[in-house]
Amino acid sequence: MGSVLAATTEPGVGPGVRADVEPGVQPAVEPGAVPGVEPTATVAELRLPVWFFGFEGLLAGAFDLLRAAPGCWPALVALGAVNLAVSLTLMRGRLRLARLLWRGRGTRKVAFGLVGLRVGSHLVLGLLGAAVTGALGHVLFALAMGAVTVALLAHVQRTALGALVAAGKATA
């Protein structure tokens, strides 16, 4: 199933020529066979599942989880390793979108916004005399940060996929 780009049409002659092609018949070039020209992917092929953003949500709440239960760091390290393994294996075909998302301005805004939300909310709560000090408060804060992270990353993905469709680099 290789590409058919040889100048000759004789079966079995030259690199890349299939033996099942009749002499004189020009075979169709398979999609993706032309170097430098990628076939247009569909949005469904590029879309990262929302559950995948759960890893990032968990990592966004890691600070508060560690404050609530300092002994949970091995579990967070293990989940980070699982995130990396899933990224490099199951989601390998979708890494193109992931790279675009991480390089995108919208994702940087989300990252800085989440840091600002964390620092700002802890600062404001501290100034109001309602600083988060208990384990339950930190767990609830971690859940809130995780939910906000997943929602924002899903929004950034929708926006990025819409831009790819508009630019003609993906089909709906």
From TrEMBL:
Q: TM spans, by residue? A: 73-90, 110-129, 135-154
Keywords associated with the record: Membrane, Transmembrane, Transmembrane helix
Protein name per UniProt: Uncharacterized protein
